[in-house]
Amino acid sequence: MTKIAVFSAGSWGTAFSLVLADAGNDVSLWARRGEVVEAINERRENTDYLPGIELPPSIAASTDPEEVAAGADVVVLTVPSQSLRENLTAWAPILPEKATLVSLMKGVELGSLMRMSEVIQEVTDAPADRIAVISGPNLAREIARREPAASVVACVDEERAKQLQAITHGPSWRPYTSVDVLGCEIGGAYKNVVGLAVGMAVGLGFGDNTTASVITRGLAETARLATAQGANPLTLMGLAGLGDLVATCSSPLSRNRTFGERLGQGMTTEEIYATNRQVAEGAKSCKSLLELARRTGVDAPIAEAVDAVVDGKMTALDMMNSFIARDTKPELH
Ligand SMILES: NC(=O)c1ccc[n+]([C@@H]2O[C@H](COP(=O)([O-])OP(=O)(O)OC[C@H]3O[C@@H](n4cnc5c(N)ncnc54)[C@H](O)[C@@H]3O)[C@@H](O)[C@H]2O)c1
Ligand SMILES: O=P(O)(O)OC[C@H](O)CO
């Protein structure tokens, strides 16, 4: 039985622990708060982040990171992206030396503009071939209900990706391997920004032509940046690109789409933060991705406009109008 440590017990950490448990692994799950640990261990439910879902006994929770990490073959990291560096700096000394480090996060760090696998590498000194990324159309609540879904397990070391594929493949979750870590991470972070823009269109009352147009141009923008950085263009057509983009932009379960919808309805970013505890990564990663695009010399009108709306410098309606008014050009440029 593979021992897997999951940091932490938010929506995705808890739902992915279920995937791992269903696949026959022994899972230890770190939570910040004692009451979450108690609910998981005693009532078999994460009442805060995944209410109504029964968790199997092979998932054991603790607030002690050392206890959670002890003896782990695989360490899964799933805190909000902007908090990874600080948390991982504290955890790095207690992580088993040979463990595979897996990022489930979909964001780009503000300031450093690093992807999550790069932050992991810098903070832990682990070589790139020990770091993997899992990304795809995986809305936590649907996964927790065991609705069938696929995803991508990416690692520059193909053998390690295959090992992870084997230990995560379960009754309702199908992983594919990839060696394109960069493409998967840019796809995962960018779809949140496009999800915000699509949510704004929905909040403004626009229909499927509008959302399909934003999704498609969002995919073009994502692929422009990812390929300029060295990603395989086909990754963006796959589960970690198009797949995740479609799931996020279509689903009322998506926190990013919902955040965008509220902006479209006229709420401010501060008002949304005041009513929502869960992370909408795109509201921060729009800034880091925009800066990454600027430094790479890539045109990123959607990230630029989303950033302006999030900062209250533009309305959602002005954003939509600005997309239409842009200089015309061939589709494939
Ligand atoms: N929820 C999903 O459907 C889903 C699916 C795939 C990937 N993801 C990605 O997984 C990552 C985590 O998302 P989530 O959905 O679990 O978020 P969440 O908001 O549901 O949970 C976040 C977790 O991190 C903890 N946390 C918050 N701030 C923290 C801090 N400063 N330090 C330490 N812990 C902190 C919270 O207590 C909670 O346990 C994000 O990058 C997200 O994009 C989410
Ligand atoms: O709820 P969101 O917007 O963070 O999206 C969740 C997942 O990333 C969908 O795959």
Automatic annotation (TrEMBL):
Residues 180-320 form the Glycerol-3-phosphate dehydrogenase NAD-dependent C-terminal domain. Sn-glycerol 3-phosphate binds at residues 106, 136, 191, 244, 254-256. Gene3D superfamilies: N-(1-d-carboxylethyl)-l-norvaline Dehydrogenase, domain 2, NAD(P)-binding Rossmann-like Domain. Its EC number is 1.1.1.94. Pfam families: NAD_Gly3P_dh_C, NAD_Gly3P_dh_N. InterPro entries: 6-PGluconate_DH-like_C_sf, 6PGD_dom2, G3P_DH_NAD-dep, G3P_DH_NAD-dep_C, G3P_DH_NAD-dep_N, NAD(P)-bd_dom_sf. It catalyses: sn-glycerol 3-phosphate + NADP(+) = dihydroxyacetone phosphate + NADPH + H(+); sn-glycerol 3-phosphate + NAD(+) = dihydroxyacetone phosphate + NADH + H(+). The keyword NAD applies. The active site is at residue 191. Keywords: Cytoplasm, Lipid biosynthesis, Lipid metabolism, NAD, NADP, Nucleotide-binding, Oxidoreductase, Phospholipid biosynthesis, Phospholipid metabolism. SUPFAM superfamilies: 6-phosphogluconate dehydrogenase C-terminal domain-like (SSF48179), NAD(P)-binding Rossmann-fold domains (SSF51735). The gene is gpsA. Its main location: cytoplasm. Catalyzes the reduction of the glycolytic intermediate dihydroxyacetone phosphate (DHAP) to sn-glycerol 3-phosphate (G3P), the key precursor for phospholipid synthesis. Residues 3-160 form the Glycerol-3-phosphate dehydrogenase NAD-dependent N-terminal domain. The keyword NADP applies. It is found in: Cytoplasm. This is Glycerol-3-phosphate dehydrogenase [NAD(P)+]. Pathway: Membrane lipid metabolism; glycerophospholipid metabolism. Belongs to the NAD-dependent glycerol-3-phosphate dehydrogenase family. NADPH binds at residues 11-12, 32-33, 49, 106, 140, 255, 279, 281. It is an enzyme of class 1 (oxidoreductase). It comes from Nocardioides pinisoli.
